[in-house]
């Protein structure tokens, strides 16, 4: 007999949850690269892609709070990409706060589905 879908999903979700901290570290590195070179579009585009992937994947696996935080950070990046402007110090601080909030969500596991 095959494994029920709910068990398969929970196993996949647990594996995904184990990978998220590494993903968040990559995002944090991108934020610090941007802080060091605010006008570098490659860093901003890399951050945007990572955030987009994080938001979508976390939404798929029920990590709603993390998905929402990543969506907010995406907006910061999108505005800069669309305008051709560099991220300001306030934007970088906002992204750092987002990374800290995601880490807190992972520690507290408040982002698990009901």
Overall description:
With 114 residues, the protein is mostly helical. Helices cover 81% and strands 0% of the residues. It has 4 helices and no strands. It has helices spanning 5-36, 41-60, 64-83, 89-108. Helix 1 runs antiparallel to helix 4 and helix 3 (64-83) packs antiparallel against helix 4 (89-108). Mean pLDDT is 91; it is low at 110-114.
Secondary structure category: mainly alpha
Unreliable spans are: 110-114
Percent helix, as a range, is: over 70%
Extended strand count: 0
Element string (H = helix, E = strand): HHHH
Shape: elongated
- Major sheet size, sense and barrel closure: none
Cα distance spanning the termini: 28 Å
Average residue-wise pLDDT:
91
Count of individual helical segments: 4
Beta content: under 5%
Estimated radius of gyration: 15 Å
Give short descriptive properties of this protein.
disordered C terminus; 114 residues; 4 helices; mainly alpha
Ordered list of secondary-structure elements with their pairings:
Elements: H1 5-36, H2 41-60, H3 64-83, H4 89-108
Helix pairs in contact: 1-2, 1-4, 2-3, 3-4
Give a brief rundown of this model.
Helices cover 81% and strands 0% of the residues. It contains 4 helices and no strands. Helix 3 (64-83) packs antiparallel against helix 4.
């Amino acid at each position: 007999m095959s494994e029920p879908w709910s068990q398969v999903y929970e196993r996949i979700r647990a594996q995904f949850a184990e990978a998220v901290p590494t993903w968040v570290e990559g995002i944090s590195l991108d934020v610090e690269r941007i802080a060091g070179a605010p006008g570098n579009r490659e860093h901003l585009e890399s951050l945007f892609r990572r955030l987009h992937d994080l938001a979508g994947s976390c939404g798929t696996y029920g990590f709603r709070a993390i998905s929402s935080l990543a969506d907010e950070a995406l907006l910061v990046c999108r505005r800069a990409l669309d305008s051709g402007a560099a991220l300001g110090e306030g934007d970088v601080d906002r992204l750092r706060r987002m990374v800290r909030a995601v880490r807190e969500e992972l520690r507290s596991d408040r982002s698990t589905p009901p």
